[in-house]
Design brief:
CATH architecture of the largest domain: 3-Layer(aba) Sandwich
Strand order of the largest sheet: 2-3-1-4-5-6
Structural class: alpha/beta
Number of domains: 2
Family: Belongs to the TRAFAC class TrmE-Era-EngA-EngB-Septin-like GTPase superfamily. Era GTPase family.
Helix content: 25-40%
Radius of gyration: 20 Å
InterPro entries: G_ERA_dom, GTP-bd, GTPase_Era-like, KH_dom-like_a/b, KH_dom_type_2, KH_sf_prok-type, P-loop_NTPase, Small_GTP-bd
Subcellular location: Cytoplasm; Cell membrane
Number of helices: 9
Low-confidence stretches: 36-40
Subunit structure: Monomer.
Function: An essential GTPase that binds both GDP and GTP, with rapid nucleotide exchange. Plays a role in 16S rRNA processing and 30S ribosomal subunit biogenesis and possibly also in cell cycle regulation and energy metabolism.
Distance between the termini: 43 Å
Length: 298
């Protein structure tokens, strides 16, 4: 049996389940999840290795009209990989009709030469007739190599989707060692885990105004505890007060929840030291977008 390997980009509107699908496929939590749009900000790379070959998945930010420089960066992240990969997974919600954002993405996908797999997600909460009708509408607008109906949340149809991806990949050697599920450094993943808890616990403008930078990861002497120091950046003083909360309770809750995720990642006890600082209007300033880890911003 020939060994196959290649790169697969996951694209779609915000909040259609791209990150949930990524985590389900690789069997590990690589991308953070939230019910708020624009959870994913960078291209998240995850690796699936099996007897048949190796798939490198790229989870991109959801496609929507940008409102600031950070939004422009995220849109660029979502679109630049379309012709640079072997397969595109175009993820849509089974019970969501085609709207302006979907039409914008469809117009873009109609121009790409990369094979497209249409992934109709969330069939656990939609009727199959709705899913099939939506798929038919999309297939009339773009060329689709295969269509799969799945639930990224519970795994329905995901194994069949993976088989379909392998069928479209070229023969080739593995890019990563067996057992490696991402090429992102621990600092990036830890920062994302902290940001995930902020997404879960805060509302309105707060989630989108936050950036997290991990400044230090250091084992403590004569202890099995790892010291992790991170800074939560916001755009205004009022947001800083919300993140800290009354008597520091919000920051404490964020830290407690994130620490559990980080301990599972590192396999050791964690002392998590969180700070909150203000960088006014950072989402519109190139230098801070770069400093906060958006390395592909131009």
């Amino acid at each position: 049996m020939s060994y196959k390997s290649g790169f697969v980009s996951i694209v779609g509107r915000p909040n259609v389940g791209k990150s949930t699908l990524l985590n389900q496929v690789v069997g590990a939590k690589i991308a953070i999840m939230s019910d708020k749009p624009q959870t994913t900000r960078n291209k998240i790379r995850a690796v699936l290795t099996s007897e048949k070959g190796q798939i490198i998945f790229i989870d991109t930010p959801g496609v929507q009209k940008p409102r600031n420089k950070l939004g422009e960066f995220m849109l660029k992240q979502a679109l630049t990989s379309l012709d640079e990969v072997d397969v595109l997974l175009y993820v849509v919600e089974a019970n969501s009709p085609i709207g302006p954002q979907e039409n914008y993405l469809l117009k873009t996908l109609a121009e790409v030469k990369t094979p497209i797999i249409l992934v109709v997600n969330k069939i656990d909460v939609a009727k199959m007739i709705e899913a099939q009708t939506l798929a038919g509408q999309i297939e009339s607008k773009i060329k689709v190599a295969k269509t799969y109906y799945i639930s990224a949340l519970n795994g329905t149809g995901v194994s069949e989707l993976v088989e379909g991806i392998f069928e479209l990949l070229p023969e080739g050697p593995p890019y990563y060692p067996e057992g490696q599920v991402t090429d992102y450094p621990e600092r990036f993943i830890i920062a994302e885990y902290i940001r995930e808890q902020i997404l879960h616990l805060t509302r309105e403008e707060i989630p989108h105004s936050v950036a997290v930078v991990v400044e230090e990861i250091k084992p403590r002497e004569n202890s099995n505890t790892v010291y992790v120091s991170a800074v939560i950046y916001v755009e205004r003083e009022s947001q800083k007060g919300i993140i800290i909360g009354k008597n520091g309770q919000m920051l404490k809750e964020i830290g407690q929840r994130a620490r559990l995720e980080i301990e599972r990642l590192l396999g050791s006890n964690i002392y998590l030291d969180l700070w909150v600082k203000v960088k006014e209007d950072w989402r519109n300033k190139d230098v801070w977008i770069r400093n906060f880890g958006f390395t592909e911003f131009e």
